[in-house]
Amino acid sequence: MKTIIWFGVVLGALAAAGKVFIAEVGMKKALECGNRKTITDVQWNHGSEQICKVDVKTGRSIKGKSNILERSRIIQDKNLQIRPVKEMDAGRFTCIADGATYEHTLIVVSVSVNPSSDLSTGAEASLECRVTESDQKSTVKWEKPGGLFENSPKVQLSPVEASHGGPWQCHVTNGAENFSKTLMISVKEADPKLTLPVPNHGNTNIPKPSEDDCSSRCKDSGSTNHQPPSGGMTLLGLIWWVWVAVGVGSLVVIILIIVVIVMMRRIRRRKRKLLKMRDAKLPPRTKKYCQCERQTAAAQPQLGRRREKPSAQPLRPLLME
């Protein structure tokens, strides 16, 4: 009988035992709340702050004051999903389901390369696998492209070599939980640069140059400094034909400006002449009066005595034969 009781106690302890979750910054992560299939109410806490409390039967939820509240939600009636994950989310999470308490731990990992994943030989770069957790129990290591491991969260590449190109994997282990993230690093050959010899001031056995050597070098340097380029003479760093092109262009612009001014003046003069000619051709304006054509009345007959017809002359006697 005691054996059965102890066995039940051990199973209950294992069921309520905490679990470790590893998440990457910017991704989403779901935290499981126990192994029970049916739950009536569930409550999630982050540290000492309450995130939310949900009554599964009625669907009523009570919001807490944790800063994770706006980025979290309850899924499958009991599990807590956080999206996106931030470094401040790392720590202890407590799930209370039907009176049973489950303690969980969230570890947040951030993998980065500085300045970028595209590098050049001879440059400097750093790869970092930063782990944020409440208890420093995780082990971090980098796997190089050749298969070798670097047991450090940060790897400094100084200088960058061609062999550094390829996949770099960050491995985080905490108990039975493992996390890995791969970064692809590409390395290209740097542009060749002229390097000047470094003078050795400590070595006193170097022979000093003779006066003849100095005079010849000075002559050579003087001749090379004053030698014009293959294009001809230069002025203020420009070849002579460039200055000629600039002068010709300036002259053309000045001529165009003069032509435009002359044409404008001619147009104005023509306008004035046309206005004067039009004013001279117009006749003087006179006042116009109404001249209506009226019919004249017929002459009225004169009243009074009528003119008598002249009396006939008396007949003369015929001459006798």
Automatic annotation (TrEMBL):
Transmembrane intervals: 238-264
Signal peptide: 1-22
Positions of the Ig-like domain: 104-186
Assigned keywords, A-Z: Membrane, Signal, Transmembrane, Transmembrane helix
Entry keyword Transmembrane: yes
Database matches in InterPro entries: Ig-like_dom, Ig-like_dom_sf, Ig-like_fold, Ig_sub, Tcell_CD4_Cterm
Pfam families named in the record: Ig_3, Tcell_CD4_C
Region (Disordered): 194-229, 293-321
Biased composition (Basic and acidic residues): 209-220
PANTHER family linked: HEMICENTIN-1 ISOFORM X1 (PTHR11422:SF6), T-CELL SURFACE GLYCOPROTEIN CD4 (PTHR11422)
UniProt-recorded name of the protein: CD4-2 protein
Gene: CU467865.1
